[in-house]
Design a protein that fits this description.
The chain is of the alpha+beta class. The chain has three domains: 80 residues, no CATH class; 106 residues, Beta-Lactamase, CATH 3.30.450; 171 residues, Heat Shock Protein 90 (2-Layer Sandwich). The chain is 45% helix and 25% strand. The strands form three sheets. The protein has a five-stranded antiparallel beta sheet. A five-stranded mixed beta sheet has the order 9-10-11-13-12, with helices on one face. The chain has a three-stranded antiparallel beta sheet with strand order 1-2-3. Helix 6 runs antiparallel to helix 7 and helix 8 packs parallel to helix 9.
C-alpha cells in the first residue's frame, strides 16, 4: 500500500486465527507518509452477520405468519360475502340468473334508494317501448313512472302488490324491497300490461265456461239417460227411439252446419263451443246458410282471429240473453281478397254516437269490475292482422259488428 499508494483488502492467518485485513495509505502533500491497517477475525464477522441474519429471518417469519393469517381471514370474509360459493359456481349462477330474467315475460326493474334504475330486462324495455335498448338504465324511475310513489317501500320495507300504473299502456306492478342485513338497499319492480293480464283472465274464464258447460251437459244427458231408461222400463220403445233420434238430430244439425260452412278446424271448434255457450244462456245462435269459410291463410294468426270472434260472440250472446228474442246471428265469407264476419244480436244495442268509443280501453256498457278491455283487445288484434271493425244497429234490434280481415 505504501509502495503503490493503493488500498486493498486481504485475508490472512494471524496469531489469533484467520482474519480479514484492510490497509489504506496516508498521503501528505501528494506523498505517502504512512499506513493505516485494521482487521477482523473471520469468526467475529460471521457472528455479526449471523445476528443480522437471525433478525432478518425472524422478521420474515413474522411477516409470513401475519400474511397467512390475513389471507385466511380475508378468504373467510370473502367466502362469507359470496355465500360460500366457488368462482365457477358464481359464473354458473350468473349465467342462469341472466337467462331466467331474460326469459320471463314480466318487465323487471331494479332501483337503488335514490330511485335510479340499475337494471332492466328485455321484457321491461319492450313493454315500455324503449327503442334504445338498455338506455333506461341509469335514468331516474320518476322519468319512466312519474306518479309511482315508492316512499312506503323505502321507509317501511313493505311490498306493494297489484299497483296499477296509468300511462300509454296501463301496467299492473308489484314492488318488493331489496334487503341486506335488514337494511333497505333498493327495490325490484315487476310489471305486466294490464290488457295481457285481462287476456289471461279471459282465457281462464273461457276454460271455466267450458267446464260449466260440460257440467251442465253432463247433468242434462244424465237426465235424458234416465228418461230413456224409464221409457224402456215401461216398454215405450217407440217413444224412447224417437227421443234418441231427436237428440241426435239436433246435434247432427249443428255439427253439419258448422262442418259444411267452416273448413278451418280452429274456427269451427270455436263456433261449436259458442253454440254450447249460447244454449247455456238460452240464446239461439244461427249461422247464415249462405256463409262459407275456407281454411284460414297461413299468414293470418288463427288464434288472434279466434280471440276476435270469441270476444264479439261472447258480448253478443250476453247482450241477447237479456232480450225477449234471445237471438244471435253470424254470417261470414272469404270470397275475394278479404275474410268478412257479420255478427248481430237482439240485445239493447249501442247508443248512437258511441260506436267509435266502444273500442277505447276501459269503455263498457256493463257495470261489472274489470270490464272494458274486451273490445279494446279486439281492436288491437285487428291492428295486428291489418283488419277493420265497424259497429251499427242490427235488424234484430241490438248491435251489429262487421269484421274485415285482408287475406294478404
Amino acid at each position: 500500500a505504501i509502495n503503490t499508494g493503493e488500498s486493498y483488502i486481504s485475508k490472512a492467518v494471524g496469531t489469533l486465527g484467520p482474519s480479514i485485513r484492510g490497509k489504506v495509505p496516508v498521503f501528505y502533500n501528494g506523498e505517502t507518509v504512512g499506513l493505516i491497517s485494521t482487521g477482523y477475525l473471520i469468526s467475529d464477522v460471521k457472528d455479526i452477520i449471523g445476528e443480522y441474519v437471525y433478525i432478518f429471518k425472524t422478521v420474515i417469519m413474522i411477516l409470513l405468519l401475519i400474511g397467512v393469517i390475513s389471507a385466511v381471514l380475508i378468504a373467510k370474509g370473502l367466502k362469507k360475502a359470496i355465500f360460500g360459493l366457488e368462482p365457477h359456481e358464481i359464473a354458473s349462477m350468473l349465467s342462469e340468473r341472466n337467462t331466467i330474467i331474460e326469459t320471463i315475460h314480466e318487465g323487471i326493474l331494479a332501483v337503488d334508494n335514490d330511485k335510479n334504475i340499475r337494471f332492466a330486462n328485455g321484457a321491461a324495455v319492450s313493454i315500455l317501448e324503449n327503442n334504445k335498448s338498455r338506455s333506461i338504465v341509469g335514468q331516474n324511475l320518476e322519468h319512466i313512472f312519474p306518479k309511482f310513489d315508492l316512499q312506503s317501500v323505502f321507509e317501511n320495507g313493505k311490498a306493494i302488490l297489484n299497483y296499477e300504473i296509468f300511462m300509454k299502456r296501463n301496467l299492473i306492478a308489484n314492488v318488493n324491497p331489496i334487503l341486506h342485513k335488514k337494511n333497505i338497499m333498493g327495490a325490484v319492480i315487476s310489471f305486466r300490461p294490464k290488457d295481457e293480464l285481462y287476456e289471461l283472465g279471459k282465457k281462464l274464464s273461457y276454460v271455466r265456461q267450458y267446464t260449466e258447460t260440460l257440467r251442465a251437459k253432463t247433468h242434462d244427458y244424465s237426465n235424458k239417460l234416465h228418461t230413456i231408461a224409464g221409457l224402456l222400463q215401461t216398454n215405450n220403445y217407440d217413444e224412447a227411439l224417437n227421443f234418441v233420434l231427436q237428440e241426435y238430430s239436433d246435434y247432427s244439425e249443428i255439427l253439419g252446419i258448422v262442418n259444411s260452412t267452416i273448413k278451418d278446424s280452429i274456427v269451427a271448434s270455436l263456433i261449436l263451443g259458442k253454440f254450447n255457450y249460447a244454449e247455456e244462456h238460452k240464446v239461439s245462435l244461427e249461422i247464415d246458410e249462405n256463409s262459407m269459410l275456407s281454411k284460414v291463410p297461413a299468414n293470418i294468426d288463427s288464434y288472434k282471429l279466434v280471440d276476435i270472434l270469441g270476444n264479439i260472440l261472447d258480448n253478443a250472446i250476453e247482450a241477447a240473453s237479456s232480450s225477449l228474442d234471445k237471438k244471435v246471428k253470424i254470417s261470414f265469407t272469404d270470397f275475394g281478397d278479404d275474410i268478412v264476419f257479420d255478427i248481430e244480436d237482439s240485445g239493447k244495442g249501442i247508443k248512437d254516437g258511441l260506436y267509435s268509443s266502444i273500442f277505447e280501453k276501459g269503455y263498457s256498457t256493463k257495470e261489472n269490475y274489470g270490464r272494458g278491455l274486451g273490445l279494446h283487445i279486439v281492436k288491437r288484434r285487428l291492428n295486428d292482422l291489418r283488419g277493420q271493425i265497424s259497429c251499427s244497429r242490427s235488424d234484430l234490434g241490438g248491435a251489429a259488428f262487421t269484421i274485415i280481415i285482408p287475406k294478404k
